[in-house]
């Protein structure tokens, strides 16, 4: 592989590689695959559910009974002092005006339903769904443009399941464009600071851009093949492409600059650089990809879809940085680094010398004290785990206020909260419908029951809960409601609808977390064993990553509560954060420990650790800052979940970069000594008979102090 990759920077190979990438991207663009990627995304919560979930079965039965799937648009009118005769006339006039619009796939609005307290009224219309988000968005926007607002004290809002869907569609429509602009901007700034060259930073940016276009194009093809993709997954994929791609670029470019100081021929320097860094980049990429692919075991389709999509992004980035980037480096040469052009014989000091070497020597004076102190600090940060809460609901999903949520609150002041999104109950046996209705009316959590439709699969009942259908209270009431209807109508009775969908999603998400986290740990553990040929070192590394993850989530939960004011966390957050932090956190430990093992074979464990830390410290720290920055960009998006995952991963990467990888792991290795490599030969042999490290410039008495 090294020999093949080295040819990408050859005199002819560089042009072949560039041509292949350009032809591929031009072909993808001509087929409009990058733009198609946004159109194939499914952002409805029902599309995330596994087929075996009861709410999924209820949805299929509901479609069969009604002949189609529909969502309800509710226009809510309210005057705090009570509706006047003029208000009621306005409502009737607006109802007629809305019907005259002849909105596509939308039924006429119902007659007004007035609240018992006389303060509010609602009119409703159903929109037939066909899978195209514009089918919902256009009618809702048209109705809002006509009636929404505050008219001399008469407040009007458009909500209902159609209103919630329309607001979600609007948010997701611009999410990828906003994210890409913000992420590219932060990467641009960080690369400018790292390379201090107005020219060179465009080379890795161009490579990452080509990887992003390719990833989106292949993602569109995967969606056509049946993979469930949503806006959250696509956003995370884009961040992974930018973050991982830039990290790999930093490693390769760092080695390329070293080679340019030793070799005049830019082609040979680029070939040597890619051959030297390919094993580490490949091991890193494969580790992250395998960890992400563990998500395919999830029951939640959105989570399962992120697995191959994220692995795709990382894989394409890895290939781009090992092929396209070396070719571009060989084409542009050393002059691209202007004004700090690396020259042969200049700036050629041993890379195992400098600030990171001095930091390692400081740790080496009291390694046990250092690792115990670092561990205590991380354990203290773990105390924030007590702030964990899963009270985040669909109504709290947006950072900004949306009309569907304000409309829901307006409706709840005068009507049962559940009237906004009734729970669906499907009764296959018509003879048992009266018994089911009676049981529901007797249930204290139910506000109202009515027959909504009848068809071949049975009778569809619309059940309005007293609780807000988008609240954790309503979600918790679903199991009891299912017991009630099954006791009255048999086990074949199904409960679905908004609250049931969210309840089933939460249950599936909890199951996924319990299953996938141990599998990810096992996969990473096996990779570390194969890479380091040791059992003790992988155990310690896995332990440090788990501790880092716990500390990160402790900080994050406190920040969500005190800093951001979020009501809680998404149920899928722990799993997503764990996969990213373990995969990416172990990534940097791989870069460090692989180099430490290499140096240990020459100089022994102690000096191998010091040299490994010295030569990897700068570039890995830069990579950690870039990766943290790209994930932090998720915070610019108006979705609470993405803000939470972006904050957690950014904080976690920084903790891993500056505490775990640079302090805790070196201290553990220096304290344990050669036994860290148990049971390999390195754990039993004395210092190898290579050149004495004391004779090297960085260990000379005048330079080591």
Q: Secondary-structure blueprint of this entry?
A:
Blueprint: H1 2-6, H2 13-30, H3 33-39, H4 54-66, E1 70-78, H5 85-99, E2 113-114, E3 120-128, H6 133-147, E4 149-151, E5 154-159, H7 160-173, H8 175-195, H9 202-224, H10 231-260, H11 266-293, H12 301-332, H13 355-365, H14 367-382, H15 403-412, E6 423-427, H16 433-442, E7 446-455, E8 458-465, H17 472-489, E9 494-496, H18 498-532, H19 536-564, H20 573-603, H21 605-632, H22 640-672, H23 701-704
Antiparallel strand pairs: 1-3, 1-5, 2-3, 4-5, 6-8, 6-9, 7-8
End-to-end CA span:
41 Å
Backbone structural class: alpha+beta
Average pLDDT works out at 85
Number of DSSP strand runs: 9
Q: Can you tell me the residue ranges where pLDDT is under 50 for at least 5 consecutive residues?
A: 689-705
Q: Specify the CATH architecture of the largest domain.
A: Up-down Bundle
Strand content: 5-15%
User: What radius of gyration results from the CA coordinates?
Assistant: 30 Å
Helix content: 55-70%
Largest sheet descriptor: 5 strands, antiparallel
Overall number of structural domains? 4
Tally of helical segments: 23
The CATH first-level class of the largest domain comes to Mainly Alpha
- The CATH superfamily name of the largest domain is Multidrug efflux transporter AcrB transmembrane domain
Coarse shape: elongated
State the CATH topology of the largest domain. Multidrug efflux transporter AcrB transmembrane fold
Strand order of the largest sheet: 2-3-1-5-4
């Amino acid at each position: 592989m090294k020999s093949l990759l080295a040819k990408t920077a050859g005199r002819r190979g560089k042009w072949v590689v560039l041509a292949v990438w350009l032809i591929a991207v031009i072909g993808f663009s001509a087929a409009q695959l990058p733009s198609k990627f946004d159109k194939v995304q499914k952002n409805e919560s029902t599309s995330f559910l596994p087929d075996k979930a009861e709410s999924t079965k209820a949805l299929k039965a509901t479609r069969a009974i009604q002949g189609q799937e529909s969502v309800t648009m509710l226009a809510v009118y309210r005057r705090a002092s009570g509706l006047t005769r003029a208000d009621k006339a306005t409502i009737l006039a607006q109802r007629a005006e809305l019907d005259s619009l002849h909105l596509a796939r939308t039924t006429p609005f119902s007659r007004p339903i007035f609240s018992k307290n006389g303060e509010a009224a609602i009119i409703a219309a159903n929109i037939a769904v066909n899978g195209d988000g514009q089918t919902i968005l256009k009618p809702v926007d048209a109705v809002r443009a006509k009636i929404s607002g505050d008219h001399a004290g008469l407040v009007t809002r458009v909500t209902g399941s159609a209103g919630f869907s329309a607001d979600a569609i609007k948010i997701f429509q611009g999410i990828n464009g906003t994210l890409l602009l913000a992420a590219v901007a932060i990467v641009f700034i960080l690369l400018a600071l790292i390379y201090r060259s107005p020219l060179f930073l465009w080379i890795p940016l161009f490579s990452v851009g080509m990887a992003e276009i390719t990833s989106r194009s292949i993602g569109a093809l995967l969606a056509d093949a049946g993979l469930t993709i949503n806006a959250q997954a696509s956003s995370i994929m884009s961040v992974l492409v930018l973050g991982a791609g830039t990290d790999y670029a930093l490693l390769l470019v760092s080695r390329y600059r070293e080679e340019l100081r030793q070799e005049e021929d830019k082609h040979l320097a680029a070939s040597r650089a890619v051959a030297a860094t390919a094993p580490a980049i490949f091991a890193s990429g494969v580790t992250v990809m395998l960890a992400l692919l563990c998500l395919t075991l999830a029951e939640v389709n959105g989570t399962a879809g992120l697995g191959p999509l994220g692995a795709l992004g990382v894989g394409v980035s890895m290939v781009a940085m090992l092929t396209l980037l070396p070719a571009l480096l060989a084409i542009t040469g050393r002059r691209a680094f202007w004004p700090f052009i690396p020259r042969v014989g200049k700036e050629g000091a041993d890379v195992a010398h400098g600030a990171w070497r001095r930091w390692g020597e400081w740790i080496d004076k009291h390694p046990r004290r250092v690792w115990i102190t670092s561990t205590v600090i991380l354990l203290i940060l773990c105390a924030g785990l007590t702030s964990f809460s899963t009270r985040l609901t669909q109504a709290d999903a947006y950072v900004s206020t949306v009309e569907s949520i304000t409309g829901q609150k307006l409706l709840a002041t005068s009507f049962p909260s559940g009237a906004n999104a009734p729970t669906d109950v499907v009764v296959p046996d018509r003879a048992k419908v009266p018994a089911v209705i009676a049981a529901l009316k007797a249930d204290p959590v139910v506000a109202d029951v009515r027959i909504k439709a009848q068809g071949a699969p049975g009778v569809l009942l619309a059940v309005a809960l007293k609780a807000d259908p988008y609240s954790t209270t309503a979600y918790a009431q679903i199991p009891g409601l299912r017991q009630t209807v099954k006791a009255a109508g048999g086990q074949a009775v199904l409960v679905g609808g908004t609250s049931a969908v969210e309840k089933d999603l939460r249950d599936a998400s909890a199951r996924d977390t319990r299953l996938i986290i141990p599998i990810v740990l096992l996969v990473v553990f096996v990779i570390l064993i194969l890479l380091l040929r040791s059992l003790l070192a992988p155990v310690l590394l896995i332990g440090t990553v788990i501790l880092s993850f716990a500390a990160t989530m402790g900080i994050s939960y406190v920040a969500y509560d005190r800093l951001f004011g979020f009501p809680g966390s998404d149920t899928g957050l722990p799993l997503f954060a764990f996969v990213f932090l373990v995969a990416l956190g172990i990534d940097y430990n791989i870069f460090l420990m692989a180099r430490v093992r290499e140096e240990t074979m020459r100089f022994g464990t102690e000096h191998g650790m010091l040299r490994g830390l010295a030569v990897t410290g700068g570039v890995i720290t830069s990579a950690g800052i870039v990766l943290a920055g790209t994930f932090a960009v998720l915070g610019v998006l108006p979705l609470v979940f993405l803000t939470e995952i972006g904050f957690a991963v950014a904080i976690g990467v920084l903790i891993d970069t500056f505490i775990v990888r640079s302090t805790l792991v070196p201290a553990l290795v220096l304290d344990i000594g050669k036994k860290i490599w148990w049971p390999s030969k390195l754990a039993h042999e004395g210092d190898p008979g290579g050149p004495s490290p004391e004779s090297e410039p960085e260990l000379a008495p005048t330079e080591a102090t």
